[in-house]
Structure formats: C-alpha cells, structure tokens
Amino acid sequence: MTNNGNNGIHHVAIATADIKSQIDYFNDVLGLELVALYWMHGVEGAWHGFLKLNDHCSIAFVETPAIAGIEHELGVTHSGNAAQPCAGGAMQHVALNVDTLDDLLAMRDRIRSRGVTVIGPIDHGMCHSIYFAGPEDLSLEVATSAAPIDGRAWIDPEVQGLAGISADELERYRHPEPFTPSNEPIPQPDFDPAKPYPRGYSAEEYRRIISVPDDVVLAKFSETTPPVLLED
C-alpha cells in the first residue's frame, strides 16, 4: 500500500444552516449527485448529506439546529476567499478535482451558465485552478494537475526555513516512515491532554470514552441499516 494505506479523501464535512440550499447548489452548479441524506449517526438532531465526487469520495454537509445561530465573521469563522485567513483548524477553502484542463474549462462554463461568477483558470505550475464561492460564504476551487506534484521542484527552501523545518525533518516529511501492523492491535494510549483530541468533552468525559474497548464501540455505536431498505 502507498502512503501507509491513505489513498484519497473519503469525504470533507462542511457545516451548514441550510442543507437544501447546499445540495441544490452543488447539484445544479457543479453537477454532483446526492447519494445520502439521513439522520447523522450518534448526533441528536443532525442531518448528514453526501454528494458524490466518485464512488469513494464525497462532499458532505452537516446541519444541526445550533448552526443557524452561529454568525459568519470573515477572518474568524470563514476566509471569504481562497487568499484570506480564518481560524486555525477551520476549512480555509476546498478544492475539487477534475482530470484535464478541458474538463476544467467545461466546469468553468457550467458554473457561469448558472449565473455564478468564477475567476480563472490560473496556471500555478503544478495545477490549473478556477475560483468561485458557494452558499454560506464557502470558498471553492476546482483544480487539475497534468502530472503528480514533484516535491523536488515544489518545496521552496526559503519557506522551508521560515517554517522551521530542518533538512533532516524535510527528509522525514518527504519519506514518511512506513508502519507494519503487528499481529495484535495496539492498545489505546493513556490520555494526554497535551496531544490533539476531539473537543466538546471535559478531560474526565473523554477519558471515560476512550476507556471503552474497540469491540464494544463497534457493537454499541454502529448503525449499518440505511433509511430506505432496497428489495433484491
């Protein structure tokens, strides 16, 4: 397996106060098929929607009642466009992929045909991109790369130095250490609040959550039945 098994994005989840408007936009303007819309598993009052990019990759939306009450503040909650800042950890922009430059130009024309303005294409050397906006101040891009990105050409030594990345660290980043799973699962490590962990829990609550064995989590929290049962 390449990249230790990582081989693409399964879905990007975007918060929304109006899931219908997002579905309509991504369906009409970008031509994406709605493939799932259901009560989000384990989250009271939340809806989850998936629009297909390919058979294994989707744009997903999450609507909960609380989202409508959260104000947009450019530079904090939203970037506003792909060149502006927002809070660390927030989605600054999302770039969708097409296979060829012709596909990119066709997507530009489709977007414009829906009355939505779009800038580009711009040639970045490693890709061509077009830029536009979506509902709720989403910053969006569609891009295409003619060839895989070559790190020998596209890692700037000046930026490497400004980021505090040493030569040894760069070598490690460019050649990630492979991992071979053992015959026995690795046990859950002790909770260390200095390391990243999902927010919204107290430290004690999260300790209780991670103390639950994996097989119990799988048995107790899995929900595998779709909302519509299909006949054979």
Brief synopsis:
Helices cover 25% and strands 22% of the residues. The protein is of the alpha/beta class.
SSE order and pairing:
Blueprint: E1 11-16, H1 19-28, E2 33-39, E3 47-54, E4 57-63, E5 94-97, H2 101-113, E6 119-123, E7 128-134, E8 138-144, H3 151-154, H4 157-162, H5 167-174, H6 203-210, H7 214-221
Features:
alpha/beta, 232 residues, 8 strands, 2,3-Dihydroxybiphenyl 1,2-Dioxygenase, domain 1, 4-stranded mixed β-sheet, 4 domains, 7 helices, globular, 25% helix
Description:
The structure is a single chain. The chain has helices at 19-28, 101-113, 151-154, 157-162, 167-174, 203-210, 214-221, and strands at 11-16, 33-39, 47-54, 57-63, 94-97, 119-123, 128-134, 138-144. With 232 residues, the chain is α/β, with parallel strands linked by helices. The chain folds into 4 domains: 10-70, Roll (2,3-Dihydroxybiphenyl 1,2-Dioxygenase, domain 1), CATH 3.10.180; 76-147, 2,3-Dihydroxybiphenyl 1,2-Dioxygenase, domain 1, CATH 3.10.180.10; 150-180, no CATH class; 187-222, no CATH class. The longest helix has 13 residues, at 101-113. The radius of gyration is 21 Å and the shape is globular. The two termini are 34 Å apart.
